[in-house]
Amino acid sequence: MKRLFFLMLCSASAWGQSHVVISYFDPFGGAAFNNSERVARALESKLRGHPSLTVHLCALETVFERSFGQLEACVRSLPTPPTVVLGLGETGCNLKVELLGRNLDHSFGPDNSGVMRKTSPINPGGPQELGLRYPLAQMYCALSPEERRAVVVSNDAGSFVCNNVAYQYAWRYPEERFGFIHVPSNDCRNLERKNRDVIPALEKMILAATLTDASARLPVRKVELDVLRERHRGDSCLKEFYKRARGIDEQGPWRF
């Protein structure tokens, strides 16, 4: 973290202020809160006053027809284009970093407006999958070995509103740096302890994202990953990341 802070100071003097947008969702399914909001607010608090970084929070409704537009309006309202836009949602009980968005809405329950969607394309005729464009490998390698072991490297962001936002942003703004990460759900056991581990890990990842110029889309197929696995075989952490990453044609319970 000290090294990241030093690099951040150097970057600030050379390049000026970095702006990071973090979005989160409201509670859904009768829950009292959405943990993505708790994590987002904790991150904003920890990074507030940083000499070279400003965090902007965006609240999204868990509604298919509204969430992407709300994020879009939030980003476009900024006076300076952000360095990276990071969407947060909740699922499971681990930190789950997403490689891609899928062109499919398929909900197992209603969104907060009562809408359910069954095998509905987000963009009819569009690509079935889109790799997200954020420096996830470098963000992953900013973590300690222990922190990396707790991270799920995912090729399946689900088919609910989180995935809808991820796919739409990647499709509509293909040149912008946008990523999506799932944090533990509100109903996980020992949630406060989990958040105490997740929040500093995300802080390191956000700082790392502002320090790298890497902006290629993340790979979505085995052949693309194989190239990167070979290219980075001399870097133990990047090799680890691309070994853990899986293309849509390698594994994944994506069946409807």
Describe, in plain words, how this protein is organized in 3D.
With 256 residues, the chain is of the alpha/beta class. It has one domain: Peptidase C15, pyroglutamyl peptidase I-like (Aminopeptidase, 3-Layer(aba) Sandwich). The chain contains 9 helices and 8 strands. The chain has helices at 2-15, 35-47, 67-76, 136-140, 145-149, 161-172, 191-210, 222-231, 236-244, and strands spanning 18-25, 53-60, 84-90, 95-98, 100-102, 129-131, 151-154, 178-183. The strands form 2 sheets. A 6-stranded mixed β-sheet has the order 2-1-3-8-4-7, sandwiched between helices. A two-stranded antiparallel ribbon has the order 5-6. Helix 2 (35-47) packs across helix 7 (191-210), helix 3 crosses helix 6 (161-172) and helix 8 (222-231) runs antiparallel to helix 9. The longest helix is centred in the C-terminal third of the chain and has 20 residues, at 191-210. The protein is globular and about 50 Å long. The protein starts with a helix and ends in a 12-residue tail after the last helix. 41% of the residues are buried.
